[in-house]
Write a structure and sequence with these properties.
mainly beta, four-stranded antiparallel beta sheet, 206 residues
């Protein structure tokens, strides 16, 4: 019943809305740097959001009407391309340094280094599992109860979107314009769609 938006004002304002009434629940400045992704916590209660972007991570608490900037602690500072959250009050942000940052509130607890080099370009939490896609071309499934890697699948191209419905198969949108479905148990891949990702298409015939 809630919607969160981020605008392209110089302040990158973040607004959380009640979608039924249209009422603004919370609004504040995101900061001077672009925000690339936003998500809701799945922990229940009053809506809590996380935003991630260029030199930016923030925790938005509507109950306390408070935005808190992300703290890195002893972990290296970086930018974030994507963010997701679980039902235990934790968020997971994909770093420009190939690390996944695990946040409790606005404090980074630890980092996960499952993607070699580059950056993490897609991330989603579903039913206790974290699906992350990196510049290394792999999708890694992590058990968030133990923060250990369970499986990895090599697509050879940067994943930019991941989704999973029944924990049997997941679907990936790749940087080259392809959409691929992958069986989690067998690793079998089925390309649903292929697209052009370099140059322009100037011809059409029917």
């Amino acid at each position: 019943q809630y919607v969160v938006t981020v605008d392209k004002h110089n302040d990158h304002n973040v607004t959380i809305w009640n979608s039924g009434s249209g009422k603004v629940i919370m609004r504040d400045k995101g900061g001077p740097d672009p925000i690339f992704d936003v998500c809701f916590s799945r922990a229940g209660g009053d809506p809590v959001c996380y935003t991630a972007g260029k030199k930016h991570f923030a925790h938005w608490d509507t109950e306390k009407q408070r935005k808190k900037k992300g703290l890195f602690g002893s972990n290296p500072r970086c930018s974030f391309a994507c963010v997701t959250a679980d039902d235990k009050g934790q968020a997971y942000a994909g770093g420009s340094n190939a690390l996944i940052y695990v946040y409790a509130g606005n404090t980074c607890k630890t980092t996960l280094g499952f993607h070699g080099s580059g950056f993490v370009g897609a991330i989603i939490w579903i039913k206790g599992k974290l699906f992350s896609g990196g510049r290394d071309g792999r999708v890694v499934i992590t058990d968030t109860a133990t923060l250990t890697q369970e499986k990895a699948f090599d697509f050879g191209v940067l994943p930019r979107a991941i989704d999973c419905f029944n924990m049997e198969k997941f679907v990936v949108g790749l940087r080259n314009g392809s959409i691929v479905e992958c069986n989690i148990e067998s690793g079998e891949m089925n390309t649903v769609m292929q697209s052009h990702n370099d140059g322009e298409v100037w011809g059409l015939d029917m």
